[in-house]
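Researcher: Structure for this, please.
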Amino acid sequence: MSAMSAALRTALMLAEAGVPPLPLRQGKVPFGNCRNCADGACGGRPNMKNPSPCTCPAPCHGWAAATTDPTVLTSPAWASAWREAVAVAYHPGGADLTVVDLDNAAAIAWARETLPATQTVGTTRGEHWIYRGTMRSANAVREGVDIKSTMAYAR
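Model: Predicted structure, token format:
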């Protein structure tokens, strides 16, 4: 079974559960703009500045391109992204979730002392604490802590 088919299968399972997935390329970052949006033609990636979905046929606006629509996920416009995908991410805000991304032991200790208990998932560098509801996404809210929700992706 190819990595592409495994990534797409994971994406379809997430979508079925109501969690909008998106493919990540080498470096575990979203794919770049589609041809229609290249060089700022779409107004400088406007969907990355507003909590609204990407309307381009290809997955070109990062978290805003995440979708639960299996027709979009399996479309020809997304096929090359799935062939090149090295990981699958998801848009927490699109699933009415907020992820507190804790990147080191000190951040995890802070969260244990400060935040309400919740579902946690281990990551390569720390933990994701997952809460119901959305809020504004923010990086570096304190050392090793990012908030991923309405305008971010998590993996």
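Researcher: Any notable elements?
Model: The chain is about 25% helix and 25% strand. The chain has two domains: 3-90, 94-148.
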